[in-house]
Amino acid sequence: MPRFVTVAVPCPLRRGFDYLWADSLGKEPAIGMRVSIPFGPRRLVGVIIATDSSNDIPSNKMKAVLRVLDEKPTLPLDLVQLGQWAADYYHHPVGDCIQQMLPVTLRKAEQAKEKPAQYWQCSQDIKQLPPLSARAHQQRSLLAVIQQSGQLSRRQIKDLGYSNNILNPLINGGYLSKANAPVADGSYMHVDKPVLNSEQDAAVTAISARLGHFDRFLLDGVTGSGKTEVYLRAIEYCLARGEQALVLIPEIGLTPQTLQRFEQRFPGCVSTLHSGLSDGERFQNWRKIESAEHQILLGTRSAVFTPFNNLGLIVVDEEHDASYKQQDGWRYSARDIAVKRGSDHNCPVVLGSATPSLDSLHNVAQNRYQLLELRERAGGASAPAIRLLDIRNESLDEGLSKSLLDATTRTIAAGNQALIFLNRRGFSPQLQCHSCGWLANCKACDAKMTVHFGRRELRCHHCDASDTLPTICPQCHHHQLIYQGPGTERLELSLKRHFPEVPVIRIDRDTTSAKGSMQSLVDDIRTGKPCILVGTQMLAKGHHFPDVTLVGIVDIDGGLFSADFRGPERSGQLLVQVAGRAGRADKLGTVYIQTHCPEHPALQALVNDGYQPFARQLLAERQLFSLPPISFSAVIRADATSLEGAEAFLERLRASLAPGDTSWSIVGPLPAPMTRKAGRFRAALILQAERRSVLHRQLHTACHIGDQLSKPQNLRWSVDVDPIDL
Ligand code: ADP
Ligand code: ZN
Ligand code: ZN
Q: How does this polypeptide assemble, per the annotation (predicted)?
């Protein structure tokens, strides 16, 4: 009897493929093993998702597995099943899901050799060496960190914000010597830790009482209220049971300070997975968790797919953060997958945030999640006062009102720091000719080109097209070009003019793209000297700036009035997160918000009552209109070289579905808010249902039909379940 196995193959088809398993392979097939298989004219790496598959096709018509790439399964059964579940849930090809769950190194048949990491410790004869010069403070600080930690690898040192230029002289000078990889010895039990306040204590007790069971918690506490301390303590209980913990953090939320805190509390126990690592490093860290050499994994979105030897606790920090949702291809939510994994592994899942998503608040209201609140800032700091600045009829100086400039002057005079927030990088979002009205539009998108003054460049922030900054109007050749509205680059220049005596530090994608530059800017700020910070939402994540006492929000109106019903939720979260960067125990913070609509009810609720009442109000509105998270939705998107092409496909897809009834509805095809992007025209169908099962049934049919429909060659289409935007 010939044997068949079913293989998940990385291809756009929504199914597994059967292959013949020859005795000559010399092994028993097992679910989760990687195999090399012929697929059309190519050879691909796939993963076995079923053994002993039955098949009616004569075996001489079947293709055979060419080679087995693993001794034992690379993906454990629970992850193969998770991949299959997610393929169903997100209506995405299973082969692509399974492939994305693998580290890049394992997606190829030929594997790179693992290089063991070299660890460094303080040298024994450090006392005999000449002391480091007083001016080498980076090196002194690194030496102190290594002394505290015992030993660190080059990678860990880099993650902590120290470049090779700081490390190498210490090695060459003999201050450091080679060390063995650290072994966890339970020393975390004896590390110094703060005494928990009563709210923290209640949270830790509630979580640790459920270890060994599936349960879901929402830890709701403002920035600085001690959430991380709660995670650390719960992890300690988890490790004491001999289990491992997964901690998910947003894309740019992993700061050296956070990492250092985990490292110091749990020496030799922590692995990281994030975009700053090389493929080889990611693979090594993946293995350390799989083999249980390390107990704690701190990682971004895709870390949710790491195989654990014995997973006992999952934490999702800043659970509202949009970076948990993959925004192309397989549009999964790592937060939601984390909850599913908790159920698979029978362990508690803790979602933490200062600004919980409406999804999670709704789950609390439905008694699905248990709410744990931290109302006080640990260490006794009070929440900043928020004031609205009505800028209607006020003349603005490059976007800044006189009140905000005056407040900045007072802040600097008092020896403190100010933070000016505008979620728009570049010099100006729009270039226009004052004479003929010409606008610098992107040739490939329905969008304006952004002016980058320092680089003398126009750049489209949607497709990355660029052009040199014109000095005369290309249409009428006049010189009167005007820059409409500010971006962070313009604010920086303007603030430098107003405050020549203090440093103005800009933090956005343009100033932090070089490796390590973010850290050196943050180090400057953390010296505590008076300065002005200007930046985008990069300022709103991860870092805490204790000497900032003034936060100025230049423009938030756009988000509050966005066409997407999720706009106010997102803007409110961003606003509260930015405001939360300010102030500590002995320094009270103030937040000024410039607005053209000070009476806006959402803004009023946010300012007068805080995030929770604001969110409750938004949730009530969603209830009223039966919008998610009260109902469930999905978007089917299509893009093509013409809008008609994209719309015609969606029109046919819609026509072949049953008409919506009271249990579900379908809207569209609608052109996407930015219809043309990177030269492609985009349209969408929106499906909504009161029950998830109804939505999935319709999506299942839609995918089946969509796959069958004949399409123009250039058409692409995709499904987005639980979308976070239109
Ligand atoms: P969050 O994660 O909510 O921002 P953290 O856990 O980082 O809060 O706590 C903020 C600061 O307060 C940290 O410096 C932390 O060490 C300190 N802290 C946390 N809990 C306590 C406590 N119970 N007593 C004293 N300090 C604490
Ligand atoms: Zn002109
Ligand atoms: Zn563009």
A: Component of the replication restart primosome.
